[in-house]
Amino acid sequence: MANESTTKNPTATWRYVIPNAVTSASLVLGLGVLAVATQGEFELAGWLMVWCVLLDKLDGTFARLLGASSKFGAQLDSLADMVVFGVVPAGTTLLLLRARPDLMAPWLGRELLMYAMLSLFAVCASLRLAKFNVLADEDGPPVFFGLPTTVTGGILALLLLIGLDHQMILLLRVLPVLALILGLLMVSNIVLPKIGHSSGLFMQVFRAVTIGLCYVFGFMRVFPEYLLGISLFYILTGIVLGLLRRDELLSGKGPEDGADLDLEPQPG
Fold first, then answer.
1. Domain count, the chain
2. Is DNA repair among the key words of this record (predicted)?
């Protein structure tokens, strides 16, 4: 929130509007996902979820560039993430299965189990973000504990897209099971280092190129396989590094956050 110095300077105050507007745009876009999904436009819904992931990266970037980080922005970001990366992916998956009898067939007579799995995904997202809010003001190691909500929501959207693009009926049928697994990984104690803080030239270039391609492919609505591959590469690499360097990482100092794909604290 703006302090006394910023309230006297309209320009300084308006700096906070930009990142918060991006966060709000992500929330509006997330609601648009459900709107198009109810019309049966599931491929478009999947890509809109990918765009939400890209916007989630931008709000933190704008906040850092403008020096507009605030507790208000962090709270707004967490609330938006709960809806966009918790409720929306689960709801879209449910709408897809209910709209396609061929996908719903294995769940006939097990509808309650399917609903429970998707509901747990949303609940786990809210639990993770609640944990972030509690720990945000405390010093801690520069790591993630469990998978960030942005990552899991994006992965579920990409699995949906790939399943639709390649007519992978089995993949689409087991989306509730995969959602449950991703939900449990969100609230797990798996240690993931924040590779975004790396000062090595190779990692900086690699990160810039891969993220740049994610934006290009994401907004062009092409190559969801690349986007999924990058996400899984990050997760698997992070898990391995977390296992090999757990004691070293946990002895470090830094904020713990769980909602930013940029792997840095959530400003806004």
1. 1
2. no
Contacts of 134 (CB under 8 A, 6+ apart): none
- Asked whether residue 152 is assigned to any structural domain, the reply reads yes
Determine, yes or no, domain membership for 170.
yes
The one-character DSSP state at 252 is S
The residue with tokens 């309230």 is: 7
- How buried is 258 (Cβ within 10 angstroms: 0-12 exposed, 13-18 middle, 19+ buried)? buried
pTM: 0.86
CATH of the domain at 191: 1.20.120.1760
In a domain, 203, yes or no: yes
Work out the pLDDT band at 136, boundaries 50, 70, 90: low
Q: Which two tokens stand for residue 127?
A: 């639990």
Measured CA angle at 70 (ends 66, 72), to 5 deg: 130
Distance CA 234, CA 4 (A): 41
